[in-house]
UniProtKB/TrEMBL annotation:
One of its GO terms (cellular component) is cell projection. This is Merlin. GO terms for molecular function: actin binding. Residues 311-464, 517-544 form a coiled coil. The lineage of its organism: Eukaryota, Metazoa, Chordata, Craniata, Vertebrata. A 1,2-diacyl-sn-glycero-3-phospho-(1D-myo-inositol) binds at residues 68-71, 287.
């Protein structure tokens, strides 16, 4: 067969892009493929078996619609683009997520879609519930909280709360993170699938969960109501209230739903009840509502029937998988606990080792300081010993000096006393000498006077003798060669002898007076010398007393 023939037999294809909540995939589809062929290809690629909840959604002329499974893909009114984009989303919601969502991939896709709807405010959630849901989302993404790893700011790039909630409360991102982390820390030990399931169990109780809203009117002119379709039935809401329906039709109470152009009719199971009719703005909207009603009703009835073999197998597998995962999680939790205990023990040992090393380092430093202190103390002790010796020597010298000074002081006192006594004696002597000097002076004066009187008497006697001689011996004048002395020698009369005796007494008296005068002068000179010596000794004693006062 030629290459040209092979090319002719090769089927023509077109490209599609499948967008899930968290990923994108591209496939090449054959031109003849129906919607179910493409849908099955995507489910196989995802490993999804619970296919009845999902569908392929696309947007055309501003309206979201679902790809029909029984028609060719290219025959449907799809966007003319290459590749053609479809969103793989949950089309129908379970009544009880814990019982109906068997596969982990199914649960994960529902978790991602519901989380996005809450963040996009398609599902209203109270601020308190959003914080709790955010904590489960963080647990599913990051695992168990670890304060050493999950430091402040680790949620800065995660979108966890609706913008409405952020605007409603004047809290900083750090404060919101603190609130979420407080709940997150309590979810320790919860696996990712359990955290996602807990998220969905909380979300399924929200009023807007799983509800598709469409504007409707009770007549052809006004659109003043909303029609909601979910897993439990059909609900009628006022235009401004999507939480509490004005009227509800459960699937079990609906006998028939019919659709004709823009009119949709709901017939209750009770034939006596009023038939509800409403109008939509477009035929496509009516067909979409009708399609959702049929799909939700089929699932509603399916839940109340005995499970098929496939569902039973899937549930059994799910139970086994859950049991296996539970055991695995328990084993992992045990291993994690043991690892954490081992890490804590290791950290404790490392801390203890570090503490011991630190204590050893401190002890070594203390030892070095002690050695240095001991050396310093030894040196100081040596210096102190030398200083003590020096001080002892100084003390001994001081004691000797003190004793010497005491002795000196005693001697000084004794000498002072003796000196004072000598001074008093000297003063007494001086007084006596003065008195004696006065007395002697008086005696000398008397003696001088007596001498003068004696000489005067002698002169008078001599004159008288001369006069007598002249009178008795006139011839003596003619012999001048004879001195009166000769005549006195020659005459041995009584008057002459008396004169010689008197003259001798005068000479002796004069000699005695001169001798006494010389003795007085000698005694006076000795007394003055003695006074000078006393003054010198007193001055020396005063200097010693001053020096002794300075030492003390």
């Amino acid at each position: 067969m030629s290459i040209r023939g092979l090319k002719k037999k090769q089927p023509k294809t077109f490209k599609v892009r499948i967008i899930t909540v968290d990923a994108e995939m591209e496939f090449s589809c054959e031109m003849k493929w129906k919607g179910k062929d493409l849908f099955d290809l995507v489910c196989r690629a995802l490993g999804l078996r619970e296919t009845w909840f999902f569908g392929l959604q696309y947007t055309i002329k501003g309206m979201c619609t679902w790809l029909k499974m029984d028609k060719k893909v290219l025959d449907q009114e799809i966007p003319k683009e290459d590749p053609i984009s479809f969103h793989f989303l949950a089309k129908f919601y379970p009544e009880k997520v814990e019982e109906e969502l068997l596969q982990e991939i199914t649960q994960h896709l529902f978790f991602l879609q519901v989380k996005k709807q809450i963040l996009d405010e398609e599902i209203y959630c109270s601020p308190e519930a959003t914080v709790l849901l955010a904590s489960y989302a963080v647990q599913a993404k990051y695992g168990d909280y670890d304060p050493n790893f999950h430091e402040p700011g680790f949620l800065a790039h995660d979108e966890l709360l609706p913008k409405r909630v952020l605007r409603q409360y004047q809290l900083t991102a750090e404060m919101w993170e603190e609130k979420i982390t407080a709940w997150y820390a309590e979810h320790r030990g919860i696996a990712r699938d359990e955290a996602e399931m807990n998220y969905l169990k909380i979300a399924q109780d929200l009023e807007m969960y799983g509800v598709n809203y469409f504007p409707i009117a009770q007549n052809k002119n006004h659109t003043d109501l909303l029609l909601g379709v979910d897993a439990k039935g059909i609900h009628i809401y006022s235009i401004n209230n999507r939480f509490s329906p004005n009227k509800s039709f459960e699937w079990s109470s609906i006998r028939n739903i019919s659709c004709s152009e823009k009119e949709l009719t709901i017939k209750p199971l009770d034939k006596k009840a009023e038939v509800f009719k409403f109008f939509s703005s477009q035929l496509k909207v009516n067909k979409l509502i009708f399609q959702l009603c049929i799909g939700n009703h089929d699932l509603f009835m399916r839940r109340r029937k005995v499970d098929s073999i496939e569902i039973q197998q899937m549930k059994a597998q799910a139970r086994e998988e859950k049991a296996r995962k539970k055991m695995e999680n328990q084993r992992l939790a045990r291993e994690k606990q043991l690892r954490e205990e081992a890490e804590r023990a290791k950290e404790e040992l490392e801390r203890r080792l570090f503490q011991l090393e630190d204590e050893a380092r401190q002890a070594n430093e203390a030892l070095l300081r002690s050695q240095e202190a001991a050396e310093l103390l030894a040196e100081k002790a040596q210096i102190a010993e030398e200083e003590a010796k020096l001080l002892a020597q100084n003390a001994a010298e001081a004691e000797q000096e003190r004793q010497r000074l005491e002795i000196t002081a005693l001697k000084s006192k004794e000498e002072k006393r003796l000196m004072e006594q000598k001074m008093r004696e000297a003063e007494l002597i001086a007084v006596k000498l003065v008195k004696e000097s006065d007395r002697r002076a008086k005696e000398a004066e008397h003696l001088k006077q007596d001498l003068h009187e004696a000489r005067e008497a002698e002169r008078k006697a001599k004159q008288k003798l001369l006069d007598i001689t002249r009178l008795n011996y006139p011839h003596m004048a003619k012999y001048p060669q004879y001195s009166p002395g000769d005549s006195r020698d020659a005459n041995f009369d009584k008057g002459s002898i008396k004169l010689d005796l008197k003259d001798i007494d005068l000479k002796r008296l004069s000699f005695e007076i001169e001798r006494e005068r010389l003795d007085y002068l000698e005694n006076s000179r000795k007394f003055e010398d003695r006074l000078k010596e006393l003054k010198s000794e007193i001055h020396a004693l005063k200097l010693e007393e001053k020096q002794a006062g300075l030492y003390n």
